[in-house]
Amino acid sequence: MKRVVTYLSILCFLLSAATISHAATYYIRTDGGTAQQCSGLADTAYPGSGENQACAWAHPFWALDSGGGWRINGGDTLLIDAGSYMMGYGAPNTGWCDAEGSFECHLPSVPSGPDPLNPTRILGKGWDSGCSTPPELWGTQRTYHILNLEGTSDTIIDCFEITDHSGCVEYHSNSSVRCERDAYPYGEWADRGIYAADSSNVTLRHLNIHGLSGGGIHAGRLSNWTAEDVRIAANGLIGWDGDLWEDDDSNSGTITFRRVTVEWNGCVETYPGMQPDHCWAQSAGGYGDGIGVGRSGGHWIIEDSLFRHNTSDGVDLLYVGVDNPGSMVEIRRTRAEGNAGNQIKAGGHL
Fold first, then answer.
1. Cα distance between residue 250 and residue 321, in whole Å
2. Other CB atoms closer than 10 Å to residue 293's CB: what's the count?
3. I want to staple 105 with a disulfide (CB 3.0 to 4.6 A). Which of 79, 97, 342, 349 is the partner?
4. What is the four-CA torsion angle of 102, 204, 238, 249, rounded to 10 degrees?
């Protein structure tokens, strides 16, 4: 019996090792090449000639095939060098997009890692040394979102600036800052920074998500998510939107916010000045919660964080626990000030 157990243990170890060994690291840098010119498997520039060279790709969209599907697999790492990368229709390798449907021209769902110990990792260079110069992923032509985590689990997103290059907000009551949405070209704006649904065991770290037309993060039906050292600022409607506009967007597991700053949501962010402007609340047709979540379960932990100057509530977790007995909200060492609505609303067992 002991011998059988030993053999099974060895087999499990070998299978685990095989899973780890098959994970690959792909590189993105602005002086890289296309997917035909470079393998993506070396952190070097494209040499200027030849195909299938050992060099980096020049843009995140080169990590996609000609149909817009991922070339990378779950458990792989995509390491993106410092620089500015336009995300949306008109960016490199967007032949699978069209102008009329440009809102759908975005990265597909990040492939899930095989398990929590072997996550898929989308990293900005410097993620492990302070993230002093994060790569900028900026949306254009009214793309729905910049990063897609729908159905994605066992994943880490670390060290990025996520934004757009327009000082407009869709449907704003003031026509001078209202985004063009009816005729191409729509402009250099994006609706949301990150979209997520039906997603578990995800970590967001060292992100600066700001200046989007709609919201910074649109996410629901999450389980065991962590956001650390994340700023969500000056997004036109809301910072973190937990309403998927469906019947069920309830969350579960542990949802942790640690050293998170959520500020000036419900305001236009000027470009290139990056200052909050034309702030609007629900009375003017806007919204403005820093974090807004509907009926939800889960154990919510917020610590060492700041919520300020949002045009509605700073933190709205009032409906946590509704239809979800046993849910809990814990808030520690956190400041909420200057929000136009309530500073903090929380349900569940406090």
1. 10
2. 26
3. 97
4. 90
Contact 127, 81 (CB under 8 A): no
The Cβ-side half-sphere exposure at 321, using a 13 Å CA radius, reads: 16
Is pLDDT of 59 > 70?
yes
What DSSP string runs through 126-147? TTTTT-SSPPEEEE-TTEEEEE
In single-letter form, the type of residue at position 246 comes to E
- Retrieve residue 212's tokens: 């989007």
pLDDT at 131: 98
Cα atoms in the 13 Å half-sphere on the side-chain side of 170: 22
Residue 288: which residues within 8 A CB-CB, separation 6 or more? 237, 238, 265, 266, 279, 280, 281, 282, 310, 311, 312, 313, 340, 341
Any idea which residue has 């389980």 for tokens? Answer: 223
Residue 349 DSSP code:
B
| Residue pair 155/110 in contact by the 8 Å Cβ criterion | yes
User: How far is residue 146's CA from residue 115's CA, in Å, rounded to a whole number?
Assistant: 24
Whether the pLDDT of residue 6 is over 60: the answer is: no
How many residues are recorded in the chain? Answer: 350
92: how many CB neighbours lie within 10 A of its CB? 16
> Do residues 170 and 287 lie in contact, with contact meaning Cβ atoms separated by under 8 Å?
no
Per-residue pLDDT, 10: 53
